[in-house]
UniProtKB/TrEMBL annotation, chain A:
A single GO BP: pyrimidine nucleotide biosynthetic process
The keyword Metal-binding is annotated on this UniProt entry: yes
Keyword Iron-sulfur part of the UniProt annotation: yes
Organism in which the protein naturally occurs: Candidatus Butyricicoccus avistercoris
Keyword tags: 2Fe-2S, FAD, Flavoprotein, Iron, Iron-sulfur, Metal-binding
List of residues binding [2Fe-2S] cluster: 222, 225, 237
Record protein name field: Sulfide/dihydroorotate dehydrogenase-like FAD/NAD-binding protein
UniProtKB/TrEMBL annotation, chain B:
Upper lineage: Bacteria, Bacillati, Bacillota, Clostridia, Eubacteriales
An MF annotation (GO) of this entry: iron-sulfur cluster binding
Keywords: Oxidoreductase
EC number(s) stated in the UniProt entry for this protein: 1.4.1.13
Any Pfam family: Fer4_20
Annotated ranges, domain Dihydroprymidine dehydrogenase: 19-129
FAD/NAD(P)-binding domain mapped to chain residues: 142-449
Listed name of the protein: NADPH-dependent glutamate synthase
Gene: gltA
Oxidoreductase among keywords: yes
Alphabetized InterPro entries for the sequence: DPD_II, FAD/NAD-bd_sf, FAD/NAD-binding_dom, Helical_ferredxn, SudA-like
Keyword Thylakoid listed: no
Length: 281, 465
């Protein structure tokens, strides 16, 4: 069992948890992820490792409550335990040798982009961090991101924080202003990663994306998370999750992600219904 | 006087049209009376040809003699002397090509039903044996087993019996490997596998689940932690795909994914948290046991039509005869000499809508000794479907080979290991099962685990002289 040692609400539907998992903390690297199962009856879901403390044996995860499993997870409190927590999984991000980088995070993706930015910043690279949110109420990790970057640009779709626009607008402007990036690292919803890749493509800037495919085991034994990269089938869980954004077939990946939409909706409604029953009691 | 009936005592089974709608076990097992009757068919041969056909050398005539006398618990103990998982083997071994293929009674009539008797004895002991499992005397040496599948469990059991402190590292949340995620409940009830694993725990074997050897710790890290020898039984879990157009449409599964969702994640239960498509028309591509398991599972998940699409003929099917027979009884439709060309999908929904196939004919034997399928010109046709399950084989996962310097692998990604000892190119590292052979059978993996355990014992003894 894996104990929740800390829980923090970041915004209305995003939570942070620190989990006691020494075997995961021991070798975790930025870009890697874990798979967890809340309870004996639960499904396996992948979440990125947001931070780790090797000495304490702690691993931080940040998740958005989007469906039955993440809502169930969000209900747990400090001291409660998760049934299963396995990792680190996936290949760590290749950050060596990068001197000037733009890290682009979208929504919850900022939690995933943050460890990369932090690692690059600690390695002495110049990091422009562009973080995008729908509105100012859901901005997360602003102070942490500020500390992990040279320049932080927080954008909101509606301009409610003063910087209106999409992350792609900010990135495009930085490139047009003459910033020479060794790489752009984009993490967030697939549609955002697709558009970031389209922004950088004409400039030939290397663009790394973190593919958040549907997964079951996360160890390469099923191919549920497969995607097409440069015409070849790859497994996001063992070959990735990082891939070259200019080579990924985003349209296919987005459609694969929607495969269980109807069932997910049903599971979430069923879960809400159960919660309601609990409250009525 | 032996029972000279030329036929095996039949084993009761669930009716095909009932069982193809549930996940309960198909074969119901012998009653004590049936077991005694069948045991009396054994001639107790002096030269025991059956034993030579068993990869773990079960003392077959001895245990059967005890069954014939009604000494079922003693019979179970006799099997346990050489086999770690009799309730599993009695169910899933291809006895027709192993022990039973060598049985003298098989020359004129059917061989003795060794598998059914082993199963009966193991089940009987599981239900009735109240003797506490004793922890063997410890010898003070630590060994590690990577992977809790049939090879690893057997190796762990044998080493524990020799007094080693054994730790098994497993990446999934449940031990058992393919016995848990692959072989369905209707062929191998999971409670039985769990009972066998619990017996190993009672003997002092420690299981660390959710542990990724190759990521959390490498093989070299394990040596640094004080393990004196390591057995790698990490299997061949990486699925192959067909590399035909349309393979990434929604509704195309690898058999591993489909079976993992159904078996390990229990997606066959209506209220399971893990989703699965409940497809109405399904094609399973391939002809092995895994293909039969996937097809029979799809039928039980409510599919009205389930096809096995196989590019060779019926006599070339690699699956066990009993499984093919069961599949046919349950209404699985076989499309022989049929090769998939393309998965067709709906451009709007991105869901599978069909499989374009081509008729084949058999030519001369190829390198594998089987007749090579050759496409028939102009024979293309389309099967209307809403799911395709790809079951054309698996290969070893690259995780351990890519993180263990000095561990030699061949071009198929299999670990190179001595057939008799499991010894690899790296000192102190032994390997066996599908990680070495590529996808094979449960009992061969168990045999490899057994041989490796003996070799590890010898290695540690010599090292400490």
């Amino acid at each position: 069992m894996y104990q929740i040692v800390k829980k923090k609400t970041l915004n209305s539907n995003t939570k942070l948890m620190v989990i006691d998992a020494p075997f995961v903390a021991k070798k975790a690297q930025p870009g890697q992820f874990i798979i967890l199962r809340v309870d004996e009856e639960g499904e396996r879901i992948p979440l990125t490792i947001a931070e780790y403390d090797r000495e304490k044996g702690h691993v931080t995860i940040i998740f958005q409550e989007v469906g039955a499993t993440t809502k169930k997870l969000g209900l747990l409190n400090e001291g409660d335990c998760l049934n299963d927590f396995v990792g680190p999984l996936g290949v760590a991000s290749h950050l060596e040798g990068l001197k000037k980088v733009a890290v682009v995070g979208g929504g919850l993706g900022c939690a995933i982009a943050y460890p990369q930015a932090k690692a690059l910043h600690e390695m002495g690279a110049e990091v422009d961090l562009i973080a995008g949110f729908r509105n100012k109420d859901i901005i997360i990790l602003e102070d942490e991101m500020k500390a992990a970057s040279t320049n932080l640009y927080v954008m909101t779709d509606d301009g409610s924080n003063g910087h209106k626009g999409f992350v792609t607008d900010a990135l495009k402007k930085l490139i047009e202003d003459g910033n020479q990036y060794d790489a752009v690292i984009a993490i967030g919803p697939m549609i955002m990663m697709k558009f970031v890749s389209e922004v950088t493509r004409p400039y030939g800037i290397k663009t790394i994306v973190s593919m958040n495919a549907t997964m079951v085991d996360g160890t390469g034994m099923c191919g549920c998370c497969r995607l097409t990269v440069n015409g070849e089938t790859k497994f996001a869980c063992v070959d990735g999750p990082d891939f070259d954004g200019h080579q990924v077939d985003f349209d296919e990946s987005m459609r694969r992600s929607a495969m269980y939409k109807a069932q997910e909706k049903e599971a979430t409604e069923h879960h809400e219904c159960n919660l309601h029953k609990m409250e009525v009691k | 006087m032996a029972n000279m009936n030329p036929k095996k005592c039949p084993m009761p089974e669930q009716d095909p049209n009932v069982r193809n709608k549930n996940f309960e076990e198909v074969a119901l097992g012998y009653t004590p009376e049936m077991a005694i009757e069948e045991a009396q068919r054994c001639l107790n041969c002096k030269h025991k040809p059956c034993v030579a056909g068993c990869p773990v050398g079960v003392k077959i005539p001895e245990f059967i003699a005890l069954v014939a006398e009604g000494k079922f618990i003693e019979a179970a103990a006799k099997i346990k002397e050489t086999s770690a998982l009799p309730a599993v083997c009695g169910r899933v071994c291809p006895q027709e090509s192993q022990c039973e293929s060598k049985c003298v009674r098989g020359i004129k009539g059917e061989p003795v039903a060794i598998g059914r008797l082993e199963r009966f004895v193991a089940d009987y002991a599981m239900a009735n044996d109240t003797t506490e499992i004793t922890v063997p005397e410890q010898n003070g040496h630590k060994v590690a087993v990577v992977g809790a599948g049939p090879a690893g469990l057997t190796c762990a059991g044998d080493l524990a019996r020799l007094g080693y402190k054994v730790t098994v590292f497993e990446v999934l949340h449940t031990a058992g490997g393919v016995l848990m995620y692959g072989i369905p409940e209707f062929r191998l009830p999971k409670a039985i596998v769990q009972k066998e694993i619990d017996n190993l725990k009672a003997m002092g074997v420690e299981f660390i689940l959710n542990f990724v050897v190759g990521r959390s710790e490498t093989i070299d890290d394990l040596f640094a932690d004080g393990y004196e020898a390591i057995f790698v039984g990490s299997g061949a879990g990486l699925p192959s795909f067909m590399n035909v157009p349309g393979e990434n449409y929604n509704g195309v599964y690898s058999a591993n994914e489909y079976l993992t969702r159904v078996n390990l994640m229990k997606a066959y239960k209506e209220d399971s948290a893990t989703p699965i498509l409940r497809a109405k028309r399904v094609a399973v591509v391939g002809g092995g046991n895994v293909a039969m398991d996937a097809a029979r599972s799809a039928k039980r998940m409510g599919a009205e039509e389930v096809y096995i699409v196989y590019r060779r003929g019926e006599s070339e099917l690699p699956a066990r005869l009993e499984e093919i027979h069961h599949a046919k009884e349950e209404g699985i439709i076989f499309k022989f000499l049929t090769a998939p060309l393309e998965v067709l999908g709906d451009e709007e929904t991105y869901m599978v809508k069909g499989l374009k196939c081509q008729q084949m004919e058999l030519g001369e034997p190829d390198a594998s000794g089987r007749r090579r399928p050759i496409p028939v010109e102009g024979s293309e046709f389309v099967l209307d479907l809403d799911a395709v399950i790809v079951s054309i084989g698996t290969s070893p996962n690259p995780l351990i080979r890519s993180t263990t310097p000095g561990l030699e692998t061949n071009k198929r990604g299999c670990i190179v290991a001595d057939e008799e000892t499991g010894l690899t190119s790296k000192e102190g590292v032994f390997a066996g099962g599908d990680a070495v052979t590529g996808a094979a059978t449960v009992i061969l993996a168990m045999g490899a685990g057994k041989k490796a355990a003996a070799a590890m014992h010898e290695y540690i003894q010599n090292k400490n002289k």
